[in-house]
Design a protein that fits this description.
This protein is of the alpha/beta class. About 55% of the residues lie in helices and about 15% in strands. The chain is built from 29 helices and 22 strands. Helix 1 runs antiparallel to helix 2 (about 55-80), helix 4 runs antiparallel to helix 5 (about 145-165) and helix 5 packs antiparallel against helix 6 (about 170-215). The protein is elongated.
Length: about 775
């Protein structure tokens, strides 16, 4: 890009030698040498006019005039006055070369003729001065054209020396030597000057090439915002060229022509304002604008001593990446809904404007059976289900509502309206999520629980509101799921109690406030106690006995179940060590314990420390253990089984896919949940399920234990249908370690209900008789 009219560049002539590598000198040097040529030519012409060779003088004068005309034309081209450019400059360069060589030959011939004609000495001296002076000034005149210097010297010097030889005087040897010395000096000077000229032009070209090689657009402006110089990339990105720059200052061009190229033309004013700050306050600045074609251009202003520079960069890829990351930071990548971060921003804004606007509800939604679907059918399938849920929620929401996914299977909505409207809306959500989802070839029923908190009555701050909605959600789950609850103060009290219990439990584990109780498991066929299940109890120092149903779920959620389970296993092994060898020990293992990589080492260490036989230990697990990283869990179970530990699948039949888990890891025993036993006598379906399970596990070689046996009628039905073991209050409720030790030491106490610690069981005792002294009947 060239300079504007207010800052014209120095006129220069650039030619190329045969090979295209050499460049020429500048026009002021041509003007100076031309002036010297005219003076020498006039002096020589005047001398000739006083002699006898008037014709020859006229010819020489015409040659000088022709050469001068050629030089004047070239100078005019370089100054831009002739209107010729491009190929015309090259043609004039050739004409100039021919004329300059012809002029040198004419001067040499004129000098030769002067000596041969034996003109007066004054004329001969003038001819000598003219020839030598013309030759001496040729390097300056022909800088960048060493070949023209060689040709001019080759044409003038031999003729000059030839003329001297015809007119031999006392000064002739000196003149010849001077001519040869001048010729040699001229040639060497031309070479050095050409080399320096090429170096200077090469530096300038490198600078221009460096500017054009910059991938950003770069331009410089003066303090009046007038364009000085820029590279090609600046032209491409902005369209500002030398022609457009000469028409108006930068600020007028930005607001005028360039504004039409932007997506928002009003943004161009920002460039003008930054430019004024750079010039006025000597401060840098940058701004990113969007082009009408979708590109993002970054304009960076930097102050300079006499103006400023402007760097323009195409940052489309970078800006699109930033936008994508911003979207990822504020949107959920699975459902496309807003994420927790974006939701918190909207919630805080809604809370801030709550006094001036209508009340609103925070509606938290949790899918009831999503985990089972995700674990059994895979995460990609679970993602599809989440997308379907998001679509249903968006259809239910109005244009004013805000829908987001908090994470996992939890969603949240902000809905403007009164409490009554929020209740109707929550009911519609429960109803919609209770409908089946059809994904691929699967038909899924998952359902959802909803908690609602109203602003501002349920919380004046965003954290408080969200906490209240979570409490309401927990209440909906405790109510049986598939429903909704509004927050009330009783929930806050319950949550406070949960927090207190968690803190007390954490401390209670270290203060030995926990106890291990045991409930016998009876072998129906052998009619004796075959095992005892370890059950943890908590004797709180101020609240007394706290139900396991209250602190066990809380321990699992908080992660305390891992240290609690380790303590229970160690204590149970210590207590059971004194029992008869034929009585085993059943201990429950939580899914949280199997998340730990050291569960196998933990069991080995406790068995080693307590010296309890692994063959007497039975590990009870639920299906939830297998839902988290089933492969690693199965590997751990197999390693424990190799130690001799038996494995029982607890709460069989109540999970999402019991049969698949049963076939995967083949337990030694399955425990039928008491829900099937409770109505077995009246519910034929429950009895049919028990029969089917027994037939299945019989083929697999797996024992069946039935929980919750409380009546003789239930025991008779189970015995008739092949149940292997039974457990329930019919035999004994859970007992402390001291009491259970007496029972397993003398199993006959089970039939002595009136004498010791067990409740009366007379009707049951009469139905069974002692078989032998070593086998106690179960009455």
């Amino acid at each position: 890009m060239s300079r504007s009219k207010d800052h014209p560049p120095p006129a220069r002539l650039e030619t190329r030698a045969p090979g295209g590598k050499e460049a020429s000198a500048a026009s002021p040097r041509v003007k100076r040498t031309f002036f010297f040529d005219v003076v020498i030519a006039l002096a020589l012409g005047g001398a000739l006019l006083t002699g006898d060779f008037s014709l020859l003088a006229n010819i020489a004068a015409l040659a000088l005039i022709a050469a001068a005309a050629i030089k004047v034309g070239v100078v005019q081209i370089l100054n831009g006055k002739s209107g010729r450019a491009g190929e015309s400059v090259q043609a004039w360069e050739k004409a100039y070369g021919v004329a300059s060589v012809g002029m040198a030959a004419a001067i040499g011939f004129l000098s030769c003729a002067t000596f041969i004609a034996k003109t007066p000495a004054s004329i001969a001296i003038a001819a000598t001065i003219g020839a030598i002076g013309h030759l001496a000034l040729s390097p300056m005149r022909e800088a960048g054209r060493p070949r023209l210097v060689y040709l001019q010297a080759g044409c003038a010097v031999p003729l000059f020396i030839l003329g001297l030889c015809f007119r031999w005087e006392f000064y002739t040897p000196v003149a010849i030597a001077a001519a040869l010395g001048v010729a040699f000096a001229v040639i060497q000077g031309a070479k050095r000057l050409n080399r320096k000229t090429i170096e200077g032009l090469g530096t300038e070209r490198k600078l221009a090439a460096a500017m054009d090689g910059v991938i950003q657009g770069l331009a410089m402006f003066d303090s009046a915002s007038i364009f000085i110089e820029g590279n090609r990339r600046f032209d491409e990105l902005t369209g500002l060229t030398a022609a457009t720059a000469a028409q108006a200052p930068l600020d007028e061009w930005f607001v005028g022509k360039f504004a039409r190229r932007l997506e928002d033309p009003a943004e161009a004013q920002r460039l003008v304002e930054i430019g004024k700050l750079v010039v006025g306050r000597r401060l840098g600045g940058s701004v990113v604008l969007r082009h009408a074609d979708g590109r993002f251009l970054e304009f960076t202003f930097r102050p300079m001593p006499e103006g400023f520079s402007l760097l323009v960069d195409d940052v489309t890829l970078r800006r699109e990446t930033e936008i994508r990351f911003e979207r990822m930071a504020r949107n959920d990548d699975v459902t496309g809904l807003s994420n927790r971060v974006h939701f918190r921003e909207r919630l805080e804004g809604a809370v801030a404007n709550c006094r001036e606007s209508k009340p609103f509800a925070v509606v938290v939604i949790d899918l009831d059976r999503f985990k089972q679907v995700n674990d059994s059918l895979g995460h990609p399938f679970g993602d599809k289900l989440l997308k379907k849920v998001a679509e249903r929620l968006q259809k239910l929401a109005s244009s004013e509502d805000f829908v987001a996914r908090l994470g996992g299977d939890e969603f949240v909505l902000l809905r403007v309206g009164e409490r009554e409207d929020a209740g109707v809306f929550a009911s519609r959500i429960v109803e919609e999520l209770g409908k089946p989802f059809h994904i691929d070839s699967e038909k899924l029923m998952i359902g959802g629980s909803v908690g609602v908190a109203m602003a501002p009555q349920d919380g004046a701050q965003s954290d408080e509101l969200l906490k209240s909605a979570d409490m309401a959600l927990y209440a909906a789950k405790d109510a049986g799921r598939g429903t909704f609850r509004f927050f009330d103060t009783a929930m806050a009290e319950k949550a406070r109690r949960r927090q207190q219990i968690e803190a007390d439990l954490r401390a209670g584990i270290g203060r030995n406030e926990l106890e291990v109780w045991y409930q016998p498991i009876v072998s129906i066929g052998k009619r004796r106690i075959c095992c005892c299940e370890a059950l943890v109890r908590w004797r709180h120092p101020t609240q007394g006995m706290i139900s396991p149903a209250e602190f066990i779920p809380m321990a699992e959620e908080s992660g305390l179940v891992a240290p609690l389970g380790e303590w229970v296993l160690r204590q149970a092994c210590i207590d059971a060590k004194s029992w008869p060898r034929e009585v085993g020990l059943a201990v429950n293992f939580s899914a949280v314990q199997f998340v730990r990589a050291d569960v196998v080492e933990m069991v080995k260490r406790i068995l080693r420390e307590t010296r309890f036989p692994a063959a007497r230990l039975e590990m009870e697990i639920t299906e939830s253990v297998l839902m988290n990283d089933a492969d690693s869990v199965l590997a751990a179970i197999d390693e424990l089984r190799d130690l001799g530990i038996r494995v029982a699948l607890d709460d069989f039949g109540t999970g999402y896919s019991s049969l698949s888990y049963l076939s995967r890891f083949r337990p030694n025993k399955v425990k039928i949940d008491q829900a099937f036993v409770r109505d077995m006598a009246k519910n034929n379906a429950a009895l049919a399920i028990i029969k089917a399970v027994k037939a299945m596990v019989y083929e697999l070689g797996v024992d069946m234990l039935v929980e919750g046996v409380e009546t003789l009628e239930q025991l008779d039905i189970l015995r008739e249908n092949g149940a292997d073991e039974a457990q329930g209050y019919l035999f004994s409720k859970p007992r402390p370690a001291r009491e259970i030790a007496q029972i397993v030491a003398d199993p006959a106490q089970l039939v002595r209900g009136r004498k010791l610690i067990l409740p009366p069981c007379a009707p049951w005792m009469k139905r069974y008789e002692r078989v032998s002294p070593s086998v106690v009947s179960l009455h």
